[in-house]
């Protein structure tokens, strides 16, 4: 059995199977000259939405959608403009109606922020939580964070 991932461990990008690149924008900066803390939520959103909204991934059955219910961010280092970032995402937990992801932002090989995001599947007509369909869970399995069992408590 793999050891559990501890919150104080420094993440490694290779443990996150879903990755994409983005740019730090000048508009991301605050008056202190570094990326504003609120912008990280947008970086994390980009990673999640790019994955789940891609029709080829099979993560959004007709009539169902996703809502964000929690985002806990750990700011690890300053990030400046100009620059490129690498975003990483790994599924860490299946709930009855929810998924939990670990996410990271890397710059120049260094983790500058990490987060735990929890999303809930909803019925788009009733706006109420809906159980995760078996096919959605199966389609997420390729995106499980290395060293994690998403079915364990």
Automatic annotation (TrEMBL):
Listed Pfam families: 4HBT_2
Keyword line: Hydrolase
Keyword Transmembrane in record: no
Coiled-coil parts of chain: none
InterPro entries, per database record: 4-hydroxybenzoyl-CoA_TE, HotDog_dom_sf
The family this protein is said to belong to: Belongs to the 4-hydroxybenzoyl-CoA thioesterase family.
Protein known as: Acyl-CoA thioesterase
Organism: Bradyrhizobium jicamae
């Amino acid at each position: 059995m793999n050891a559990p991932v501890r919150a104080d461990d420094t993440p490694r990008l290779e443990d996150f199977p879903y990755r994409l690149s983005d740019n730090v924008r000048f508009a991301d900066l605050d008056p202190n000259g570094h990326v504003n803390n609120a912008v990280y939520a947008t970086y994390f959103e980009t990673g999640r939405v790019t994955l789940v909204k891609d029709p080829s991934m099979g993560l959004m059955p007709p009539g169902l959608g996703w809502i964000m219910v929690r985002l806990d961010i750990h700011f690890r280092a300053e990030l400046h403009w100009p620059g490129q970032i690498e975003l990483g995402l790994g599924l860490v937990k299946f709930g009855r109606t929810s998924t939990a992801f670990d996410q990271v932002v890397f710059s120049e090989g260094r983790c500058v922020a990490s987060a735990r995001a929890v999303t809930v599947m909803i019925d788009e007509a009733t706006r109420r939580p809906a159980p995760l369909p078996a096919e959605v869970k199966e389609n997420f399995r390729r995106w499980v964070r290395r060293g994690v069992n998403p079915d364990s408590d």
